[in-house]
Design goal:
Blueprint: H1 6-29, H2 36-43, H3 47-53, H4 57-76, H5 85-103, H6 105-111, H7 125-139, H8 149-169, H9 176-188
Helix pairs in contact: 1-2, 1-6, 5-7, 5-9, 6-8, 7-8, 8-9
Protein name: HTH tetR-type domain-containing protein
Domain HTH tetR-type: 12-72
DNA-binding region: 35-54
Length: 194
């Protein structure tokens, strides 16, 4: 395994500092209300340094979703211990609820807007993981084949985003994991063939 040089470590630390400062500003003010100049100032770097690591303000926003996909690939994909596909789907969305809570209510409120098209970006790892679970369930005749796995994935994410949005509306006063489990459980039992 190759060790990072001190210069590479410093570069990674700078990028992470810019990212964290950007996230903090998004939490406080919303994505549209902040500028690259504000993010750079908060991170203690020049605007040029910001642009060295991120092509635009939107690139920083995309990084939030990239980190979400990385989280699902590294922490969720291989940690789902349920053997039945329907139980695995419930466990997947429990992790989705956990991930939203980890991001914090203020950040999630800023992300859940109709202007945010990252939720519907095709080819994201998070959706791929769920599609694989559904495809396995379809092969095992545990999940209906009346709809393609990608369409089922989209429908389940629509429901999950609705639960997270409700959590935001109630300022985090509902139990997100419990509400997610109830909603997803009700939905997936409509997927059982027969």
């Amino acid at each position: 395994m190759t060790q990072m040089t001190s210069r590479a470590k410093q570069a990674e630390a700078t990028k992470n500092r810019i990212y964290q400062c950007g996230c903090d500003l998004i939490r406080k003010h919303g994505f549209d209300q902040i500028t690259v100049e504000q993010i750079s100032k908060a991170a203690g770097v020049s605007v040029g340094t910001y642009y060295y690591y991120f092509e635009s303000k939107f690139d920083l926003f995309s990084e939030i979703y990239k980190k979400g996909d990385e989280y699902f690939l590294s922490h969720v994909a291989n940690s789902l211990t349920a053997t039945e596909p329907l139980e695995k789907i419930i466990a997947f969305f429990d992790k989705y609820a956990d991930f939203n809570r980890l991001n914090g209510l203020d950040m999630v409120k800023k992300l859940y807007t109709s202007d945010n098209k990252m939720f519907i970006t095709k080819g994201r790892a998070m959706q791929g993981i769920l599609s694989e679970i559904i495809e396995q369930g379809q092969r095992d005749n545990k999940i209906t084949t009346n709809l393609p796995s990608q369409e089922i994935t989209n429908i389940l994410f629509i429901a999950a985003r609705g639960v997270v949005y409700e959590w935001c509306l109630y300022d985090g006063s509902i139990d997100l994991n419990q509400a997610m489990k109830k909603t997803i459980t009700l939905m997936i039992y409509g997927l059982v063939p027969g």
